[in-house]
Amino acid sequence: MMKCLYLLSVVFHIVAGCALSSDNLKEITRHRGDSVLLPCSCSDLNTKHQKLTWKSYRTGHAEEVFNDKRYRGRLQLFNNISPANLSLFISDLRVEDQGIYRCSTEKEIKDIKLYVKGCELVKKTEVEHVTVFTGESVVLPCVCTDIQDKPQGLKWEFYRISHYEEIYPKQTGHHRNRVKLVTNNSPGNLSLLISDLTEEDQGDYTCSEKEKLQHTQGKQRQHLHQYHLRIEPDAIYVNMTHIHTAGAAGIQISAGEENE
Ligand SMILES: *[C@@H]1O[C@H](CO)[C@@H](O)[C@H](O)[C@H]1NC(C)=O
Ligand SMILES: *[C@@H]1O[C@H](CO)[C@@H](O)[C@H](O)[C@H]1NC(C)=O
Ligand SMILES: *[C@@H]1O[C@H](CO)[C@@H](O)[C@H](O)[C@H]1NC(C)=O
Predict the structure, then answer these.
(1) Counting atoms of ligand 1 from 1, which one is nearest the CA of 85?
(2) How far is it, in rounded angstroms, from Cα 88 to Cα 115?
(3) Which residue is closest in CA terms to ligand 3's atom 1?
(4) pTM, 2 dp
(5) Which residues lie with the beta carbon below 6 Å from any ligand 3 atom?
(6) 45 lines ligand 1 (CB under 6 A)
(7) CA 66 – CA 75 distance, rounded (Å)
(8) Are residues 49 and 139 part of one domain?
C-alpha cells in the first residue's frame, strides 16, 4: 500500500513537470518599437504551477529579464491565467534587446534568438548635387534599407560657410516651418521636403541616423546622405541678368553666385 502511494506520487511528480513543446521557432526578427511574443509552453496543457525563468544573453552573460531594469514596464507573462503558457511578451522593442532569450523550467530549456532591426540608411558615398529655382520646393531623399525600419535619432542638418543649423526634427533658423518629412506611411522614408526656397537655402544638407547601441559588439555604422543644394534665381531673372551683363560690360557672371 505504501509502495503504491509512493509510486503514485512519483508518477504525479513527473507529470507535473513541464516538458516544453517543441515548435521550431528559434529565430524571430522584429523592428524597433514593435512587440514580440517569445513562445514557450508546456506540452501538457494541464500543467499546474511551474517554476519558470526567462533570461537574456544580450550583454553576453545571462541575466533574468525581470531583474533587468532596461525591460521595466515592457514585459508580460500569461502563466497566471494559463499555467502551461510560459511565453514572454516584450513591448516597445529596442535595438539593444537583440540577443538570445532562454526559457527555463525545472526540466528543460528553450532558446530563442531575437533580432531587432533599427534603421540603416541606404548606402551612399557621393554628395549629390541638386539645383532648384527660388520659390520652388525640393525633396531630398533619405531612406532606410528596409522601408519599414523605424529610425532613432534621425537628424537633418544644414551647413554653409560658417553657418550650421539643425533643421529636423528641431527646426531652427530660416528653415523653420518650411521643412517636413514626406514619409508616406513608410517609417523608413526620411525624405525631407523644403518649400519656398530662397537663396539663403543654398548649401549642404545631411541626413543621418544615429543608433544608440551600447552593448552591441561589432562595428557601428553610420551612413550619411549628403546633398549640395544650389539655388538659382528664377528662370526669367537668370536670362535677364545674363543678357544685361553680357551686353553692358561683357563680364561673365554665372547665375546663382551673385548673392552677397
Ligand atoms: C500564450 O498567451 C498569449 C497571450 O494570450 C497567446 O498569444 C499565446 O498564443 C499563448 N500561447 C499558447 C501556447 O497558448
Ligand atoms: C519616399 O518618399 C518620397 C516622397 O513621397 C518618394 O518620392 C519616394 O519614392 C519614397 N521612397 C521610397 C523608397 O519609398
Ligand atoms: C532663358 O531663355 C531661353 C529662351 O528665352 C530659355 O530657353 C531658357 O530655358 C532660359 N534659361 C533658363 C535657365 O531658364
Answers:
(1) 1
(2) 15
(3) 239
(4) 0.63
(5) 235, 238-239
(6) no
(7) 8
(8) no
117, 142, 158 - which closes a domain = 117
Integer angstrom CA distances of residue 15 from 10, 19, 45, 46, 108: 9, 9, 11, 9, 14
- Domain-terminating residue out of 117, 138, 153: 117
Which amino acid type is present at position 260?
Answer: E
pLDDT per position as a tens digit, 146-188: 888 888 888 999 999 888 999 999 988 888 999 999 987 888 8
Grid cell 523608413 is found at 188
What are the tens digits of pLDDT across the range 14-58? 555 788 887 777 899 998 889 999 999 998 888 887 789 999 998
Which protein residue's CA is at the shortest distance from atom 4 of ligand 3? 239
- Average per-residue pLDDT for the chain: 81
Establish if 254 belongs to a structural domain.
no
Let me know whether 89 and 155 are in one domain.
no
**d(Cα 213, Cα 81) in Å, to the nearest integer?**
36
